[in-house]
Specification:
The complex is a heterodimer of chains A (about 325) and B (about 700). With about 325 residues, chain A is an alpha/beta fold. Chain A has 9 helices and 17 strands. Helices cover about 30% and strands about 25% of the residues of chain A. In chain A, helix 3 packs across helix 4 and helix 5 packs parallel to helix 9. The longest helix of chain A has 16 residues. The radius of gyration of chain A is 21 Å and the shape is globular. Classes of the chains: A alpha/beta (about 325), B mainly alpha (about 700).
Chain lengths: ~325, ~700
């Protein structure tokens, strides 16, 4: 039986959904599950971590760990992995995951696979699946090391209700601070908006929104859904949206679970930044708009009419 | 006059000048080699047309007045060289004349007349030049003391010579020639002063002087003229007026066969080059001698920045300053560069590895302490360039700006990995999928589904390969152009095929963004594919592809006859294979793409097509043909953000919108995207339809 250690994705003291997705998958594989949580003042998360599907919670809770630092974070994971005798160590898809995973792999002499979309267990043999060459081929990799460190692609696994674990918190020793790189402060986007690269849902606004009123309307929908709020180049060029909101070839490249293109025609420069999204919904007046070629769901209509209806329906569903 | 004084002045004047020139030439010889000794006839022709004919000054409608002003000052100088030699001779021998220019030949009289009138004209031009600098103040120019000093000296040269002849006239005619002065007199041609109205005019101004005073004036003007000339000669190499000496050779030595020096196919296997960080242009010693001569020759006229799409939209690339900064860096390091070159020469003979290391270390010691990018040229300036060549096309002395910029980008991209990060996406897409958007290469031929277009893999026995390009293959808007083109070719019954999924980006943008490695990779693959199918003739649907296929692939063993689709369509029309209906409603204008016009001199074919399909004919833009304004996407700029200043495409779209046309014809997928976007931003996309010429033709074929 496999022992799978999942690294909890905690941001600003809140446990993100991806942790439960990874733990659910681990449970489905019939593995023993544990989670390692690193941060400051996170003790209160123990029960939530258990509910998400972990049977052991390795807690590294210390003010020195409040800000991300690759060295100490890796040390915590390695310690937990050793204590748990983990065969697999899974990171969610985030910058911190991508930074820490190779360090952990090196320290444990483990294989490291990034952007995996599936894992299978055939007895002791672990096999992972990952897309390569921009998704044109699928690699199936047999792992021939004792331990596998993996970074799981966003949205690859689904959280399943009912697969809960048990509370069994274990305190980890707090590693010494990293002397090579000390993070003093994290400056986030001054607007306080949700980071496009991190967001599970991204809603982008295009020329169809016309002006500030249109932007505010779509932004309202983004707020309702807790979605990242992006833009096509046209809106940035016209000065209505900030440059760091641009999705596309020369802006941000996003791949959320749901991408909503509001009044965006879908010029190739924009498509290059969002076609990796899992599901794409497009709203555009022009039925010929190229965005509909890549959309999973399309609404031909004026966003000024469509958005309020969407908002109302969301309200109804949420009660 | 006085052989002693004349000898002394000449010896001092020429010795100092010779020393300066020796140093300047030595510095050029210390720079990298480049071969410019070929095609002498073509070079002479360029020199006659561009330099001596002053083509880019007189021929430029936008600034005809200053062009004519400069041309006459230049032609005046050319004329006066002979007069100067005569005067130097006169210093030694009274009445000295050059062979065939004495009073027994008509040509002697004609020369005297020409010289006289030219001096008058030059003087007027100098006055206009001073007025222009001081009052009109064209924004492109630096108003320096040097400029006024030189204009003043030219003025003194003209006035002193005119007064010299005027004084001679008065002495001969009014004062009965007391000193028995020499002058032309011939029963057939009359006497000299019948031929020199300006000098005679000058004489009337000083006719009040007595005989003795006039005599003194003559001597004074003679020596004033001679000393001014020698001072002038020595002043030239110290500043921007060096062009008086270097412009002719610079034009003679300009690149041939392609508008500027082709990028070198860098040897990327050369480990030493990577180790020495010598790929690209990172330090001033890496300039070649012609590029050094370009810097000597820059006249600081500012035409380059005036036509630059980046400078005029408030970006930090100011080519006048760019040249000036490089020139300053070159001269500041002159001594070290000369020493360095001497060491480099010893390197060839050294075979002891220890000795080689020693020499290399000593050479590195002599490198400029400043890397070019960051310290001499700012990164923002370097990356602003769209490689549109407007600067080069307008430069009166044919300075080649763009190859230096590309070489500098090579250094930044290959060695320093310091390039705009947005390019990474395009590079990655190119590397993995052969197109900058990174769309799956397997989808490259999807646009042609159902059109019954053959691929070379199906049947390579065709007359033409249609090179579609990335935009025409993947961009929904440009796909319509590809479809139109196919319709035209099928209608004309042309035997053609496409490469389909075997086609890749030509690498144009990667090369211009300095990523020579990526360029060579795709170029090699494409050439292999093309040679494999024994492709001879290519119709390219994109000017950037055209330029690379036609002008750059031969460097790597790909030799094809490449024409642009507008050229091919024009041929089809003139040979009657397709007939155009004269049915396009509304006014029509045409935007010249840089890589079609300035790079490949294709200006007429697109226009002839448009003329014959439009009812109202063609409305020309102000910035057209050789001075067409870039759309902003060339040189890899398509794949970078434009965050500084006004956006170039908007500037161009506004110009077009001012002409209130119904249709904007383009001939390049980048221009199509950029200008259509510009129109959308102006909310004019319905009013002014932006269409490729192929689309217009397909819709207006009989």
């Amino acid at each position: 039986m496999a022992n799978i250690l999942v690294i909890a994705d905690i941001k600003d003291g809140v446990l993100k959904g991806s942790t439960a997705e990874l733990l659910s998958k681990a449970k489905q594989l019939g593995a023993k599950t544990a989670v390692v949580a690193i941060g400051s003042n996170i003790e209160s998360l123990t029960s939530e971590l258990a509910a998400a599907g972990s049977d052991t919670q390795y807690m590294a809770d210390d003010p020195s760990l409040a800000l991300f630092s690759a060295g100490p974070y890796a040390a915590c994971v390695v310690e937990a992995a050793k204590a748990f005798d983990a065969n697999m160590i899974w990171f969610g898809f985030s910058e911190t995951g991508k930074t820490v995973a190779p360090r952990v792999a090196a320290q444990l002499d483990a294989a490291c696979a990034t952007e995996i979309t599936d894992v299978t267990l055939d007895g002791e043999q672990i096999q992972v699946v990952r897309p390569a060459i921009a998704g044109k081929v699928i690699q199936r990799i047999k792992v021939n090391t004792q331990i596998l460190v993996a970074v799981v692609r966003a949205g690859a696994f689904e959280a399943t209700a009912g697969l809960t674990g048990t509370e069994n918190a274990v305190k980890l020793a707090i590693p010494a601070a990293d002397l090579r790189a000390v993070i003093k402060e994290i400056l986030s986007d001054a607007s306080g908006d949700i980071d496009l690269a991190d967001a599970d849902i991204v809603i982008s606004v295009g020329r169809g929104a016309k002006d500030q009123a249109g932007i505010d309307l779509v932004k309202g929908l983004a707020n309702d859904l807790g979605a990242g709020f992006g833009s096509s180049r046209a809106m940035v060029d016209s000065g209505l949206m900030a440059h760091n909101k641009q999705v596309g070839q020369t802006g941000k490249i996003v791949a959320p679970s749901l991408y909503m293109a509001m009044g965006i025609s879908g010029a190739i420069q924009h498509l290059a930044g969002m076609t990796g999204s899992k599901t794409i919904l497009a709203v555009n007046k022009d039925p010929e708009a190229p965005i509909f070629n890549v959309a999973d769901y399309g609404i031909v209509g004026d966003l000024f009419e469509v958005v309020p209806i969407l908002q109302e329906e969301i309200k109804k569903i949420r009660g | 006059m006085s052989p002693l004084l004349m000898s002394a002045l000449l010896i001092v004047g020429l010795a100092v000048f010779g020393r300066t020139m020796y140093f300047k030439i030595r510095l050029l010889m210390a720079l990298e080699p480049t071969n410019r000794a070929d095609h002498i006839t073509q070079r002479l022709k360029n020199m006659v047309v561009i330099a001596i004919g002053q083509k880019r000054l007189v021929g430029r409608k936008r600034e005809w007045a200053s062009g004519i002003m400069h041309a006459f000052i230049f032609w005046g100088f050319c004329t006066l060289i002979i007069r100067s030699l005569t005067l130097y001779g006169e210093g030694f021998i009274q009445g000295f004349q050059l062979p065939f220019l004495g009073d027994e030949f008509l040509i002697g009289y004609l020369y005297v007349c020409l010289k006289d009138i030219m001096e008058g004209i030059v003087l007027l031009m100098v006055i206009y030049a001073i007025y222009r600098r001081a009052v009109l103040k064209p924004s492109r120019m630096h108003n320096t003391k040097e400029a006024y000093l030189v204009l003043g000296l030219i003025g003194i040269l003209m006035i002193s010579d005119l007064l010299l002849d005027g004084a001679r006239y008065n002495l001969i005619v009014l004062h009965h020639n007391p000193g028995d002065l020499h002058f032309f007199n011939n029963p057939r041609f009359g006497h000299e002063f019948l031929w020199t109205p300006v000098s005679v005019g000058a004489a009337s101004l000083i006719s009040g002087l007595g005989s003795a005073a006039t005599g003194y004036l003559l001597v004074a003007m003679f020596w004033l003229h001679i000393t001014t000339q020698l001072i002038f000669l020595n002043l030239l190499p110290t500043g921007k007026h060096f062009h008086v000496i270097t412009a002719l050779p610079n034009v003679f030595l300009k690149s041939l066969g392609y508008p500027h020096e082709r990028s070198k196919v860098l040897d990327l296997e050369d480990e030493a080059a990577w180790e020495d960080e010598s790929l690209g242009l990172n330090h001033i010693h890496q300039l070649n001698w012609k590029q050094g001569l370009d810097l000597y020759t820059c006249t600081e006229c500012g035409r380059c920045k005036e036509v630059c799409p980046t400078y005029t939209t408030d970006k930090p690339l100011n080519l006048l300053d760019f040249n000036d900064s490089l020139k300053f860096e070159l001269l500041e390091n002159a001594d070290n560069l000369i020493k360095r070159a001497a060491l480099a020469a010893t390197l060839k003979d050294a075979d002891d590895p220890e000795k080689i290391e020693e020499i290399k270390a000593a050479m590195a010691e002599l490198n400029s302490k400043k890397p070019l990018i960051g310290e001499v040229i700012s990164e923002d300036a370097l990356w602003a360039c769209t490689t549109c060549r407007a600067c080069e096309q307008v430069c009166p002395v044919t300075i080649e700006h763009v190859p230096r910029i590309i070489a500098m980008r090579q250094g930044q991209t290959l060695m320093a990995e310091a390039y705009p990060k947005e390019l990474n996406v395009a590079f990655k897409g190119l590397e993995r999928n052969g197109n900058p958007w990174g769309i799956g290469y397997d989808k490259r031929a999807d646009w042609a589904a159902g059109l019954e277009v053959k691929t070379m893999a199906d049947d390579a026995d065709v007359d033409y390969l249609l090179w579609v390009g990335c935009a025409g293959s993947f961009d929904d808007r440009s796909k319509k152009v590809s479809v139109s083109l196919v319709k035209i070719l099928q209608k004309a019954g042309i035997s053609f095929a496409i490469l389909g999924t075997e086609e890749k980006c030509t690498g144009d943008f990667a090369r211009r963004a300095g990523n020579e490695m990526m360029y060579q990779m795709v170029a090699q693959e494409n050439i292999e594919t093309l040679n494999n199918y024994k492709v001879k003739k290519i119709i390219a649907a994109c000017p950037h592809c055209l330029n690379t296929l036609k002008n750059e692939y031969p460097q790597m063993g790909g030799n094809y006859e490449v024409i642009h689709h507008t050229q091919f369509i024009a041929q089809l029309v003139s040979s009657g294979k397709i007939t155009l209906k004269n049915s396009l409603e509304g006014s029509l204008t045409y935007h010249d793409p840089c890589y079609l016009g300035r790079y490949n001199s294709i200006y007429d074919e697109p226009r002839s097509i448009l003329q014959s399909l439009s009812k109202e004919g063609l409305t020309e833009l102000d910035r057209k043909g050789q001075e067409s304004f870039c759309c902003g996407a060339g040189g890899g700029r398509m794949w970078m953000e434009e965050t500084i200043g006004k956006r170039i495409n908007l500037d161009r779209a506004e110009e077009i919108a001012d002409h209130k046309v119904a249709t904007l014809a383009v001939a390049c997928p980048f221009c199509l995207t950029m200008l259509e976007d510009g129109m959308k931003e102006l909310n004019k996309e319905e009013e002014i339809r932006t269409q490729d010429i192929a689309e217009l033709v397909a819709n207006n074929m009989a």
